[in-house]
Amino acid sequence: MMQDVIFIHNLQLLASIGVFDWEKQLLQKLEVDVELLTDIRPAASSEQLHQTLDYAAISQRLMQLVQSQHHDLIETLAERMAACLLAEFNTPQVTLTLRKPGAVPAATTVGVRICRQRQEATLD
């Protein structure tokens, strides 16, 4: 099966994130890259948005998720973001990069990159 990719690169989000008390008092900038596997052929032939992954809706959903609560670790937030995308959008696989610029003074940015697949239901 052919797999195409819909991607969003460098989505800027403000989040309450971090383990230190001072980090819980302010919003910090995060940057997200998302790649979602899909088949774009139905949308390409029909030009119907409902037949593809709507990157505006995906971006909005990620913003809502990030702003819904404080997260101590970017690892936790990345897992929650990937799980949300797999559950709510028609994609079998998500690759997500989450960066926290300025977290380490000597580095431009730090972050995590994860790749998650939808778990198919198994019959017991």
TrEMBL record:
Catalytic reactions of this protein: 7,8-dihydroneopterin = 7,8-dihydromonapterin; 7,8-dihydroneopterin = 6-hydroxymethyl-7,8-dihydropterin + glycolaldehyde
Lineage, top ranks: Bacteria, Pseudomonadati, Pseudomonadota, Gammaproteobacteria, Oceanospirillales
PANTHER family: DIHYDRONEOPTERIN ALDOLASE 1-RELATED (PTHR42844:SF1)
Keywords: Folate biosynthesis, Isomerase, Lyase
Protein name in the entry: 7,8-dihydroneopterin aldolase
SUPFAM superfamilies attached to this UniProt entry: Tetrahydrobiopterin biosynthesis enzymes-like
Dihydroneopterin aldolase/epimerase domain span: 6-116
Source organism of the structure: Marinospirillum alkaliphilum DSM 21637
GO cellular component: cytoplasm
EC number: 4.1.2.25
The keyword Repeat is annotated on this UniProt entry: no
Family indicated by similarity: Belongs to the DHNA family.
Gene Ontology molecular function: any one: dihydroneopterin aldolase activity
